[in-house]
């Protein structure tokens, strides 16, 4: 039986909750996270009014303030967002119990067999979107397809309040036309490497044999070979708690000095803060990952007494780890930074994610 997968992604979730709860913010450029006048931190979510100025998540508040002087900055209210997330999931459970959350504001749903017996995934997605709008006064975008990968890409195609269906007969053409930078999991460095090899679209990737993709991109090459053909057998996995959240990047040229490593880790730490804010998670243990030119991997961790998710403490801990690390004569090809040992479990926060780790490449 062919799967029927829906990916639901709330529209500007934190900002939309704030605008719903505080009418004075409606219609105005609102930024959740960071601080006014660019005093530090990153944007967790920006309202669509703010996005018109080019403001987006993970952007520094200083840059956001420069782009829009009228922007309103508010601190995140995670308790409120978690409460709304639980209400959203209650709506999901009317249709299926196969729900794999990725964060407070997005999730995969397997509706191959739905509780009400509706049978049509598009009708279920419409019903979910309408219930969220009517009951919670919020909007969501949905992607509907035969697997998780395509459904996730589809959900972002017509935001906000979008609904995109990519049926079985359209998947192959869709993947062939997709630019490589739009492939979920393909980051800036990998996309640049693909383009250097003349690989600009899924159709270009499809021309290479699996062995060639693995030679160029390592283990992910096998995934690229399958996904460009519309093959994604990953099931929707419910009730698995996230143990850590991390970000990492691979570099075209090896990094040889701690100064250069710290500069790259600062960039990764900003991305990690945004990911943690979106997930509403605080942890105690910071881990830095090093992959060297000979492909060996080392990790170093440091734990604090209290849980946190702000960039300053993340970066202070990263500096401490880097100072203690023995990196003499080592060439670093990949760096990563993550947070674990979370303050609360997924069940307590209303989050139960698929898989043990979230990565942003």
Features:
361 residues; alpha+beta; Alpha-Beta Plaits; MutS, DNA mismatch repair protein, domain I; DNA polymerase, domain 1; 4 domains; 5-stranded mixed beta sheet; 14 helices; 13 strands; 38% helix; disordered C terminus; EC 2.7.7.7; DNA replication; DNA polymerase IV; metal-binding; DNA-binding
Short description:
With 361 residues, the protein is of the alpha+beta class. The chain folds into 4 domains: 97 residues, Reverse transcriptase/Diguanylate cyclase domain (Alpha-Beta Plaits); 61 residues, MutS, DNA mismatch repair protein, domain I, CATH 3.40.1170; 57 residues, 5' to 3' exonuclease, C-terminal subdomain (DNA polymerase, domain 1), CATH 1.10.150; 117 residues, DNA polymerase, Y-family, little finger domain (Dna Ligase, domain 1, 2-Layer Sandwich).
Mean pLDDT: 87
* Strand residue content: 15-25%
- Determine the CATH topology of the largest domain: Dna Ligase, domain 1
Number of helices: 14
Under CATH, the homologous superfamily of the largest domain reads DNA polymerase, Y-family, little finger domain
Order of helices and strands: EHEEHHEHEEHEHEHHHHHEHEEHEHE
Count of structural domains: 4
Structural class, by secondary structure, is alpha+beta
Low-confidence stretches: 345-361
Gross morphology: globular
CATH 2nd-level architecture of the largest domain: 2-Layer Sandwich
Sheet of most strands: 5 strands, mixed
Measure the end-to-end span.
Answer: 32 Å
What is the top-level CATH class of the largest domain? Alpha Beta
Q: Estimate percent helicity.
A: 25-40%
How many beta-strand elements?
13
């Amino acid at each position: 039986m062919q799967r029927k997968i829906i990916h639901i992604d709330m529209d500007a979730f934190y900002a939309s909750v704030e605008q719903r709860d505080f009418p004075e913010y409606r219609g105005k450029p609102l930024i959740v996270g960071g601080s006014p006048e660019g005093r530090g931190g990153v944007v967790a979510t920006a309202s669509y009014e703010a996005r018109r100025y080019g403001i987006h998540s993970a952007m520094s508040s200083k840059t956001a303030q420069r782009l829009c002087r009228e922007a309103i900055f508010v601190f995140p209210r995670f308790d409120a967002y978690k409460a709304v997330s639980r209400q959203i999931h209650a709506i999901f459970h009317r249709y299926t119990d196969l729900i794999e959350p990725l964060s407070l504001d997005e999730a995969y749903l397997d509706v191959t067999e739905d509780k009400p017996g509706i049978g049509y995934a598009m009708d279920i997605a419409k019903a979910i979107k309408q219930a969220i709008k009517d009951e919670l006064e919020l909007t969501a975008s949905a992607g509907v397809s035969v697997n998780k990968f395509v459904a996730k890409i589809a959900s972002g195609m017509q935001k906000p309040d979008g609904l995109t269906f990519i049926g079985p007969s359209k998947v192959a053409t869709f993947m062939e036309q997709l630019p490589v930078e739009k492939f979920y999991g393909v980051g800036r460095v990998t996309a640049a490497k693909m383009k250097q090899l003349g690989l600009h679209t899924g159709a270009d990737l499809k021309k290479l044999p699996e062995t060639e993709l693995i030679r160029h991109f390592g283990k992910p090459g096998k995934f690229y070979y399958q996904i460009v053909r519309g093959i994604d057998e990953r099931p929707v996995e419910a009730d698995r708690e996230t143990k850590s959240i991390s970000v990492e990047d691979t570099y075209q040229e090896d990094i040889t000095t701690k100064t250069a490593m710290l500069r790259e880790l600062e960039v990764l730490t900003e991305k990690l803060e945004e990911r943690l804010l979106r997930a509403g998670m605080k942890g105690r243990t910071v881990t830095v990952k090093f992959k060297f030119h000979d492909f060996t991997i080392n990790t170093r961790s440091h734990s604090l007494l209290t849980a946190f998710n702000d960039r300053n403490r993340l970066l202070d801990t990263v500096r401490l780890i880097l100072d203690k690390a023995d990196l003499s004569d080592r060439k670093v090809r990949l760096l990563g930074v993550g947070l674990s040992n979370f303050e609360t479990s997924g069940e307590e926060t209303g989050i139960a994610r698929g898989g043990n780790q979230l990565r942003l490449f």
